[in-house]
Amino acid sequence: MTAALLAGTLLAPLNSSIVAVGLDAVRRDFAIGFAEVSWLVTGFYLTACVAMPVAGRLADVYGPRSVFAAGMAVASAASAAAPFAPTIELLVACRCLLALGVSASFPCLMVTLRRLGTPGRLSAVALVNTTAGAVGPVVGGPAVAWLGWPAVFWVNLPLTCAALVVALVLLPGRPPSAGRGPRRGSDLLGGLLFAGGLALLLRAVLVHPFDVPSGLAALGVLTAFVAWELRVAAPFVDVRALRAAPGMLAVLAGFVLFNLGYYAAFYGLPQWFQGPLGLGPAQAGLLLFPLAASSVLATVGGARLLGPLTPHRLGLLALGLLLVGSVAVALLRPGSPIWLVATVAALLGVPYGLGNLGMQQLMYDRSPAHLAGLSGGLFQSARYVGAILAVGALGTLTPAAAGDDAAPDVTGLGVAMAVIAVLGAIVLGTTARRHPAGPGTPR
């Protein structure tokens, strides 16, 4: 039963990462700049940020089957249409629809694991997510070189169609208690405030230099969102329950910072590979293979570390290794040998594998049982907020007049990543002291 959900779950990280090696081809094909092509990333993440909690709440109330099946149907349609988009605006719209569809997977999987009482499968979830996210550029690079950028969309169709069929046959329908109590989809204002606040935050970080009015407006709208959610009977996000869960909000904040640091490198380095290093998309994708391999191995090893280590300590270890990787990134130069660049990529894969596993376990342990889907959705939203902020940071670090060789300043990239890793460690370390936990269950 969970096999279909796992297949669907890999689509979000796969589509988050595979597009990294296709951005340059899209930019050249449509004759646009980095700011325009970056909407393929930020539009996907912004849509997923809003859709994940909604899908999770619907799965909590109505069961995972219908929510997951609808998501796979939307993702299939978007993937089939995207390669034929005649303009960048329509291509971005297809990416947003794709994000809407794949957003159903992870929350539905969390609900299913809670109902089956099988938290031991969390390591499999982390392994699938890590592997899919890491191998995306490795698979996408050669595919883009041979078939062009449409290949990053074609790859979805076999997975979405198969997951849809299997889910309709095997997943349970609506639980007996579904539909009772207040309707959870009634907080339209909360959803609009949430989406509006994120959109304003996105605008603030994508404008160079930082758009202060948009940033202040985002702060105001998100503050109003929290105030409204604390008052409404059936909130879009149950802030009261999440605030009452020990350390849950701090885990989400730490995960935002972790992904901000990681995705700054994940999206920035392929652009640098294809700019100052002069590599093609296939070479750039293959150069990230060490990152893919080390992240998968780190996830497998991290599952064993969850016995003697708490999830907090595993997360802190990941942030410490991200700091080391950040220093290595800052030391790269256009004349650096390929073996050194590949070594740095491998070093960055280790914290991704460990951090994804440790913080996912923290989320599961801290979340209220009746909000498993919502908590899972917010966890993924935290991932995407970090990625959105990473894209904005890359825009700031990329020279405006670099033309076809546009790429972020790699020294500034490494320094920014280091600062973010330190901040993330402070947040996670603080919540560990306030809400200590015992050793993690071996996964």
From TrEMBL:
The keyword DNA-binding does not apply. It is found in: Cell membrane. Keywords: Membrane, Transmembrane, Transmembrane helix, Transport. Residues 1-433 form the Major facilitator superfamily (MFS) profile domain. It holds the Pfam family MFS_1. The chain crosses the membrane at residues 30-55, 90-113, 125-147, 153-173, 185-206, 212-230, 242-264, 284-307, 314-332, 338-359, 371-398, 410-429. PROSITE patterns: MFS. It is a multi-pass membrane protein. This is MFS transporter. It comes from Pseudonocardia kongjuensis.
